[in-house]
Amino acid sequence: MADNKRLRVGVLFGGRSGEHEISLRSALTVMSAMDPARYEIVPVGIGRDGRWYLQRDALKLLAEKTPHLAALGAGGTQVTLLPHPEGQSLIATPADGARGDVTRTHDAIPDIDVVFPVLHGTYGEDGTVQGLLELAGIAYVGAGVLGSAIGMDKDAQKRLLRDAGVAVVKYFSIERADYHDTPQLGAKLARKLGYPVFVKPNALGSSIGISKVKRAGDLNAALDDAFQYDRKALIEASCEGREFECAVLGNDRPEASIPGEVLVTGAHDFYDYESKYVDPEGSATKIPADLPAAKAKKLSAMAVAAFKALSLRGMARVDFLASRDLRQIYVNEVNTIPGFTSISMYPKLWEASGIPLPKLIDRLIELALEEHRERASLKITYQPTPSAKAGD
Ligand SMILES: Nc1ncnc2c1ncn2[C@@H]1O[C@H](COP(=O)(O)OP(=O)(O)O)[C@@H](O)[C@H]1O
Ligand SMILES: [Mg+2]
């Protein structure tokens, strides 16, 4: 531990992802809300190229108007994560960033108690960083390797949800190679669902590569677009009406917040990239969602069921699609490292449910440590008890 009372928390941000900038904004909110009396923050910025930088001045840098990682990397020391016999260390690598020489280095920061990966999307939310932390034996906030990987894979996720009795829209998945061999395959599947359909890459986020397709003639262009991002695409039946989100918190006994609503406004056909991030009037959120109590309860119950079905830990935001009359409610997707910007749903939902951000962070860190202890206590080898057979 950093000193007698403070926990040393590695905060990871940036990363090799289309959501790099969102992560910087999330990290600023998270670090600003961490109680300095309880936590010593070790800020680590990850460049778009994947390099890690110890960024002592991160709060100041991120608070500047347009944070970008060039600035982060420039002022930081390149570091790597190494298992260390007396605890885990972040170790500074040589200034030129040469990889091989991490043993002859200085500026080690030993004993990171817990890591908070504030990374969205690929190489951060998808189980890869979680695997690295797992190998290094460090506690970390949020879902583990499997839950994170499932959280990024829409097809795997929907299959598990369906299997657990959690409603998802009807959809088909289609592989790029099969589509190239049989170009009419998409149209055949879409016909079974009925237009409009949504076409999306299997594993991405931020609505990138997603199209709403209103007629068969436009389908293959949408598939070609989606296949730029993934070898697998989904063709989904459309469920348009309203969109809700619930925040979930916990390990074995997760709890859901009250639901919030996302209102897509202006000229946007759905909650696309522009309405999410570009157009300031493109979307709005309403907390709590304007819903009959029974429906709000149903959403919260579905959120918890989804969290459990997908083996999630710590936190997740569960997103829903509903028909306007609320007769149909589907889980659309989960986000295992939801946005933590000052206007993000996950922290706002908890705040409205009685847990302000500093308390939420305390809880997430507690859950990370609890999960780590629990995993460490599990046996990974089997020692047979001596039996009579030995004397046979
Ligand atoms: N089946 C669907 N029916 C209606 N709208 C959809 C459907 N799938 C996606 N959308 C719209 O597209 C947005 C982004 O889709 P989503 O699956 O959440 O992808 P991402 O992971 O990129 O956020 C949703 O928030 C919603 O507005
Ligand atoms: Mg989404």
Task: Please tell me the total number of domains.
Answer: 3
Report the average pLDDT across residues. 88
Shape estimate: globular
Task: Give me the CATH superfamily of the largest domain.
Answer: ATP-grasp fold, B domain
Strand order of the largest sheet: 6-5-4-3-2-1-7-8
The span between the termini is 52 Å
Query: CATH class of the largest domain, anyone?
Result: Alpha Beta
Strand content: 15-25%
**Tally the helices: what do you get?**
13
Radius of gyration: 22 Å
Largest β sheet strand count, sense and barrel closure: 8 strands, mixed
CATH topology of the largest domain: D-amino Acid Aminotransferase, Chain A, domain 1
User: How many DSSP-defined strands?
Assistant: 18
Helix percent band: 25-40%
CATH architecture of the largest domain: 2-Layer Sandwich
Q: What class would the helix/strand composition place it in?
A: alpha+beta
Query: Low-confidence parts lasting 5 or more residues at pLDDT below 50?
Result: 94-106
Give your account of this protein's structure.
- With 392 residues, this protein is of the alpha+beta class.
- The protein has 3 domains: 7-140, Rossmann fold; 170-237, 2-Layer Sandwich (Dna Ligase, domain 1); 241-377, D-amino Acid Aminotransferase, Chain A, domain 1, CATH 3.30.470.20.
- The chain has 13 helices and 18 strands.
- The strands form 3 sheets. It has an 8-stranded mixed β-sheet, sandwiched between helices.
- It is globular.
- The structure holds adenosine-5'-diphosphate and magnesium ion.
- Magnesium ion binds at residues 319, 333.
- Residues 319, 333 line the site of magnesium ion.
